[in-house]
Every structure is written in C-alpha cells, then in structure tokens.
Design brief:
By secondary structure, the protein is α/β, with parallel strands linked by helices. Helices cover about 35% and strands about 20% of the residues. The longest helix has 22 residues.
C-alpha cells in the first residue's frame, strides 16, 4: 500500500476518533490482567517452555537508571548517583536470571536482545561487560540476532559508541525527542544539537548496522514550524529507522508529568497535524511508514517485513524476529511466555525484596484464553500488516474470521462509512485515511474495553 501525501482529514473527524485507546503492544492489554497471577503461575509457564527446547526467544532487559528525571517521561526509571545502588541492582539481576535459567535450562537460542530504560548507557563500560557476560553465559545469542539498546546522547560519546559496537551491539536508538531548545526546556531535557550530532556520527563511525532516532510529537512548546525543522534535520541525518511517538500526558500514572505546562501543548487536531506532517516529510524523504508510529528506509528489514506481511509486534515494539516467547528481566519487565503475560514488580524496592526473598519477582500476569489468542492474532495483524484476512483464522480455529468475529464486526459500518477500512471477500483492509486511526479499528475486536470502570486507563489515540 502506498502512503499518499496529504490525506485530507478535518478537525471534526479527528475530534470524533480522538478517544482513549490501547497501543496494542499486547492483547489483552495490561489493564485487563485481573487474574490472580504470581510466581507459581510464572514457574508453570517456564516449565512449559522447558519442554519446548527448540523454540527461539526474545529477551528484554530493563535498566532503570537515569541521571535526571525528564518532565515528560513515561518510563519506569530511577534517578540515582549511588554507584552501590547500581551494583546491587546488577547483583539481583544476575540472581533473577539464574533462577529463570535453572528452570528452562541454559543455552536457549535468542534472536532478539534489547536493553531499554531508563538509560542503558548510564552503566559504566565494566558494568555493561558484566551484564553481557551473564546473559551470554545463560543463552545462545544467535548469529544475526538483533542486539540493541537505547541511549541518551547527553551522557554518550563517540568513544562509548565504539565500545558498545565492539561489545556486540548492532542496533542503537538515540533519544532526541526534539531539537528545539524551547521544547527541551519545557520538558526538562536540555540536549545540545552539537552533542547529539557528535554521538550520532560516532555511532555511524563505530560501524553500527542500525542507527535509530526517537522523536516525540505533542510536547509542550512544539509548533508546526519548529517540529518541521527537527524532522528535516533528522531526515538529513538519514537514520535507518525513526520512532515518532505521541506524547501521552498521564500524570495520574507518572506524577513527574505534573511539571509539564499543558497550556503550551498542541491538542486535538493541531497535535494530529504534527503527525500528519511527520508522515508526509518521511514519505518525501524516502522512508516507509511502519505500523502506527515508526519509519524505516525502504531497504530496512522492517520495510521488507511490511511488504512481505511478516511484521511482528511485541512489548518492545515492531520487530522482524518473531520469537514465540519473550523473557523480561529487571524491575517492571514484561514478558510473554507460553501464552502467559508476566510482569515484574515495577518498583525498585518491591522487585529487590522479591528477589532477596528467594523467588521470582512477578506481581501481575494473564494466562490467555482461546478467545484471547484469537483476538490477539487478529488485532496484531491489523496493527502490523494493516489487514485482517478472513482466512487468517482457519488453520488455528477451523473457521473464517468474519464468522468468528461476527458480533464485533457489527461495529464496522460507521468505520467503513468514514473511510477508515474496507470490507470485501478477502477481509478487512485499513485505508490510507484509516492508517492514522488503526488503533480505533482494532478496538472493535477488543473484548475487554467494555469492562472499563471509567477510570482513565489509556492515552488518547491522537
């Protein structure tokens, strides 16, 4: 599907569809995880995984530390300058890893290994080497595996980039958010252009096969003109991939966001127009629009996977390595093991106490029902491949999707009338207009949304 530039969408249309909704990195989404689920249930999943030794794995590591809290940040992070606190975290991480490996066995093949944060490059070189050594001893990192991490350029350097590449990382994501100084001041993240460019070029010179940039739209102080300048500068740098996330203002979840001045934030249609501008600029710059908020060069693996209808989505975002299981380590880590979602305690104290008590630090989870698996397949196919073929469900459920989802599809006519989706003998297809509202389309298949209590659970779709 080509992404035409300048799809006409009115302010009234945006207002109609700008409602709270999940991003669907998983289904069911985290607020729906109401089951009693803890260490025993996770061990049951790990025991099942042990019996599937040929299954490939993805691994996520959460590094929560930051030197300073940014006002806009929605991540689980921890500000510290205490060297001993970092060492203690790594000690417990090694303990947690050992307990998982004791169940599933060592040497399991890993095809995706990602470090998120927080700020993974907050760790010193010897600490990074220590963590890599413990995971390489536990798993077999496959040749060609994606080994990636996110970095904050403010504390990075070309020397650090060279060290990370030599250590074995092959994809690196630089947090930029916005080059405009006024915006940086408003979000509590002063980041000089010269420093960011120095680190970016250092990553290129170090030989990283994949260099990504992360942006955020909808931040306080952004204007169409200023963000357009940031987009032009990023495109000029020619990163392999760009993630351009919508700023989610959820101060009831992230109290640090109370410092954000919402009076200078673009809202509704004006915010939406920033993302339309983003899509148009990257399209003009030769990038493919991936999923809801990623962009990749036409020869990038993500672009190829989109064209081949082989894109995958998990808690780490869009991916090309569709491992059937994802193990997560560290505070707040979320995994997906043998059709169970599992989450570690999200606080440093809670996670530490559970590890110190001799167990696994699981505090929440969900075992998928057959209906969950069916809807997950359909929703993730919409989110990744922008379509729902009726034949998609035949192999696993013996029935076409239009029959299995007959009740949910009764909500389709308004979406078809508004030009978001088409329906024919093949199935559903997201239109060029519907690409901006694919979350809204996916929501009609979500069996849990009607169970919401009125308490805000999700960010808005625009």
């Amino acid at each position: 599907m080509a992404e035409p530039i300048g799809v006409p969408i009115s302010p009234e249309f945006v207002a109609k569809y700008n409602k709270p909704g999940p991003r669907y990195t998983s289904y069911p989404t985290v607020p729906a995880w109401k089951q009693a689920f803890g260490e025993a249930e996770y061990r049951e999943a790990l025991d099942e995984l042990k019996g599937r030794p040929d299954d490939e794995l993805a691994v996520y590591l959460h590094v929560p530390f930051c030197a300073k809290a940014c006002h806009y940040c929605g991540c689980n992070m921890l500000v510290t300058r205490d060297k001993d606190e970092v060492t203690a975290y790594l000690d417990r991480l090694e303990t947690e890893l050992g307990r998982v490996v004791d169940v599933i066995g060592s040497g399991r093949r890993v095809v995706q290994f990602h470090w998120g944060g927080g700020t993974p490059n907050y760790l010193k070189n010897d600490q990074i080497e220590r963590v890599l050594a413990m995971f390489r001893a536990a798993f077999a990192i496959a040749p060609g595996a994606e080994v990636s991490l996110e970095i904050d350029p403010r504390i990075g350097s070309p020397e650090q980039a060279r060290f990370l590449r030599e250590a074995g990382f092959n994809r690196i994501s630089l947090g930029v958010q916005d080059f405009e100084p006024r915006v940086q001041q408003a979000i509590g993240r002063r980041q000089s252009r010269d420093k960011t460019l120095e680190v970016y070029h250092g990553c290129r010179e170090a030989g990283f096969p994949g260099v990504n940039i992360d942006l955020v739209y909808g931040l306080p102080g952004q204007t169409r003109e200023s963000f357009g300048e940031t987009l032009d500068e990023v495109i000029g740098l020619a990163p392999d991939r760009v993630a351009c996330f919508s700023y989610a203002h959820v101060p009831w979840v992230r109290p640090n966001q109370e410092k954000v001045d919402t009076t200078i934030m673009l809202q509704g249609y004006e915010k939406f127009a920033l993302f339309q501008l983003t899509v148009d600029r990257f399209r003009e710059g030769g990038y493919a629009w991936i999923g809801i908020d990623h962009f990749a060069k036409q020869d990038d693996e993500l672009s190829v996977a989109l064209r081949d209808r082989a894109l995958h989505r998990n808690f780490m975002g869009y991916a090309t390595k569709p491992a059937p299981h994802m193990l997560a380590f560290g505070m707040s880590g979320i995994g997906d093991v043998c059709d169970r979602f599992v989450q570690n305690d999200a606080t440093i104290d809670g996670w530490s106490q559970l590890v110190d008590a001799g167990g696994l630090p699981i505090v929440k989870g969900h075992k998928l029902s057959d209906d969950d698996k069916l809807r997950r397949l359909a929703i993730l196919n919409l989110m990744c491949n922008l379509e729902l073929p009726w034949e998609l469900t035949v192999a696993g459920w013996g029935e076409r999707a239009d029959r299995l989802f007959a009740d949910s599809l009764e909500q389709l006519p308004p979406l078809i009338a508004d030009g978001l989706v088409t329906r024919d003998d093949f199935g559903l297809r997201i239109t060029a207009k519907g690409r901006y509202f694919v979350r809204n389309v996916a929501m009609i298949l979500d069996a849990y949304l009607a169970q919401d209590t009125g308490k805000p659970l999700f960010s808005r779709t625009v």
